[in-house]
Design brief:
The structure is a single chain. The protein is 58% helix and 17% strand. The protein has a 5-stranded mixed beta sheet with strand order 6-8-9-11-10, with helices on one face. A hairpin with a 5-residue loop joins β1 and β2. α6 packs antiparallel against α7, α8 runs parallel beside α9 and α9 packs antiparallel against α11. The radius of gyration is 51 Å and the shape is rod-shaped.
Length: 462
Amino acid sequence: MKASLSKKLSLGFFLAVIVSIILASFISNYTVNKEFNKYLVDEHKSKINNVIKIAEDIYNNQGSFSKANEAELQRYAIMQDLYIEIKDLNSNTIYSSGNSHLYHKAMMGHMMNNVSENNTGEYIENKYPLAINNKNIGSITIGYFGSSYLSTASVTFINTLNRSFLFSAFIALIFGLVISIVISREISNPLVKITEASNKMRSGNLDVRALVNSNTKEIDELSNSINYLAETLKNQEMLRKRLTSDIAHELRTPLTTLKTHVEAFMDGIWKPTPERFEDFYEEIDRLSKMVDNLRNLSKLEESNLNLNKSTFNISSELEKIIDTFIPLYIKENYQLISDISPEIDTSMDKDKFKQIMHNLLTNSYKYLKPNGKVEVILKKEKQDVMIKVIDNGIGIPEKDLPYVFERFYRSDLSRNKNTGGSGIGLTITKTFVEAHGGKIYVESVLNKGSTFTIEFPNVISS
């Protein structure tokens, strides 16, 4: 059974919080108890040393133990939960505090649940020498339960500390649960919206957009990518529909002409003459060229283009190409001028380069206005070759600029001009340019002209 991303994230965060709290509590509790017990043991040793010092000081001041001295030791023994016994050098008992107060207090502790049976420990007695000015005067025996240093205050402190750990862990769990839910929803909710948008796109609704406002970089980029995909698919669908319409338009004209001529022959309106057959041939030739262009374009898109590269002087080669077009331009009273930087060598497929320039110059020629002009510029920029073809023709509408390199795409203006183009010349040009690792783009202003710019890399220094 598949779980939602939100549940997985919440569970994952919550488990991480639980494990972190358990580890932190265990380590903290272990460290604190260890250090606190060490502190209590040190305090107990200090207490024992104080008893010995008090006994030595009293004897030193008095020269012997009196009843007043015994009362002072008795109070200290009861207060510190100790059994104190002092003997002289002959092992005669000089003072004994008795141990009834120890057992009484331990019994009260059991009854009040202040100290558990395990914490009471065994009764222990330690014997220490008494000395005045480095002279041994007897011995002192100090007895206590093994955990007598665990006073009521100490036990209270430890219990309070443990309760604090438990309470802190409980609060941390609640806080971790809330944070895990918030973070998981912040991550999963945008993804749910993106998924919903993607499903609508899959159903054919290309107008849908993933409206996600997220501070997470990856989610924001994913949302933008989905929206870009939707926009691209929408444009491609528009191009597909237009492609169908354009192909129908391109095929309808010659077929209609042929059908009309055949009907005229069948009805006896026209007689078969060489001129009529020449019209037939032109229309059939037009259809044949269109089919050939489609086939060539299909081959270019289906497989990697094989380039036959060679090193040549692109400056002189471009001048030759321009020279072949000058008579065509002069015939229509057009101008074809050039500004070519000399002696630029490059490594390219010469035939493909010729076809690129032929397509661009032919395209500019078709859409010139009376007294039109085309300028070809070639120059070297760092290690790139830049070629510009600038004309003052009818221009391209701004809405059509993104699609001029799409197959069969022709703006309404170019179609109305009835140039007879197939609409794939610029598509082939772009394919050849990109096969050389270059770039091609167009700038145009309606009724003022267009500028096609090509950038080829890998200039060879002459």
